[in-house]
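Reading a protein record of the kind used here takes only a little practice. The record below shows the convention in full.

——
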Amino acid sequence: RLALIQGPPGTGKTTVASILLRISQSLHERALATAVSNQAGNNLTRRCRAAGGKVVRLGDNVVIAEQAPDLSDVSSVSLAVRAKGAAFNRTAAKRRREHESNFINEASIVCSTLAGCGGAALAGPQFGRVVIDEAAQAMEPLTLIVLNYAKSNMQDALVGDHMQLPPVVHN
């Protein structure tokens, strides 16, 4: 099932999205909260943090710290490449990925940008609810990647305003 939540600015679309995520949490379902931009992803993370439970923010730790210093108490998994050049160690990289995967699997809500969900950190359908905030700004292929993480019998929500900013494509 797919819910479309549409409304003009300031009507509470993100609030409704956070309520959907809290409902999933109260039903002991894991949820994936996504947005197109880091700013919108951080906003969703703030709202999920207020609900309690274990919230994990996927993304570059440095960028998150710079853009949202108030989220320092939220556990985050950096998707940035850590191993460079000759120092690259495949065993260490494999252990790091396993650790990150376990860390993500323990979270009740995982917050990320749409692009951040396309990495190897997430695997297979594992979320009872997927929410995409600011969905009108997203390119369709990115939303399809994210919706792929939803269990087949669960509900997803696209939240946004089609009259606001369209998707941005850079050459």
Q: What stands out?
A: The beta strands are 2-6, 31-35, 55-58, 75-77, 109-113, 127-133, 150-160. DSSP finds five helices and seven strands in the chain. The first strand starts at residue 2 and ends at 6.
